[in-house]
Amino acid sequence: MKLQIEPFQVPLKVPIKTKYGTFTHRRGCYAHLILNNSIVSTAELSPLEGFSEESLDDAITQLQSTFDKFINSFQSLCQKPSNMSLFAKLHNLFPSVTFCLLSFCLSNTQAIANPYQGLISGDFNTSLKQACELKELGFTHVKIKLSHFTPYSVISLLRRLKHSVFSNSVKLRLDFSGAFSLKELILILKSFSPNDFDYIEDVSLSLDTLKKLSTHFPFPIGCDELLRLHSYESLLQIPTVKAFIIKPTIDMSYLLKSEIPKNIQIILSSSYETGVGLSQILKLSNAFNLKGPHGIDTFSHLDPKYYASKITVNPPQVSTVLPKDSRCFLPT
Fold first, then answer.
1. Is the pTM of this model over 0.90?
2. How far apart are CA 37 and CA 234, in angstroms?
3. Residues 134 and 240 in one domain
């Protein structure tokens, strides 16, 4: 069994602006398992520039250096995917490398369908238009990006969505991205009830602010960037934490924690992976019995030719594409 690395650079439909810069392409590589000169499995290795702790070059080097050890442990890792936690700790693996290797273990997972959340982003009118489209498509959960609005615009938009578009038919997940001050958050939250939303994501990136908010405004909290800024133990001390939004490419160690309380919902989230990486996320959801709906809507930023052979999008569901020959090729 050999490892072959195939670099890729995929253009995004529209440049993505982040606090780490503007992305016009998604870089990564496909890791191929080669047996008898044929590719028997492919996984994506694509740390997200600026967000991941490791660079792509570092990830490739580590994957190559641990590959033989991985093949020697393949049977036990396939029998129980959670065993990857011990393997990752033993070899101090980067998150993206852990995700890649675990994906090899899940290569023969059958085609599955998962609900995914709708996404609302853009200005006020664009957001309302997107909301109407998502309702027509039958989405049950919708994420709304709010960091670019003023507090009063947030209140106005959410009231319109709650009372004029969705009523109680859709659960809203609000993404604040830590963009508002405590004073602004109080203004927003006092206008609503904790039962109005599924959760409020990264409402603040400060633990002190989160503790104050959870005391006076007990809205359910979702942790995304918070997972990379604070310890697991400190986040669990906030009583209203409801969900961990885990990006396997960046946060794989969190998914492998066996001690996460059962009342914490795990939401998987994509990091602009191609179809190979997106299918890996769906298989992870199946392997760890995670119900979703998950946040894998970043495929909309890619031309379908970069994902259509691996996933089938049928809103509000997405599924992996079953290979023509689904027999197990990997060593047992």
1. yes
2. 49
3. yes
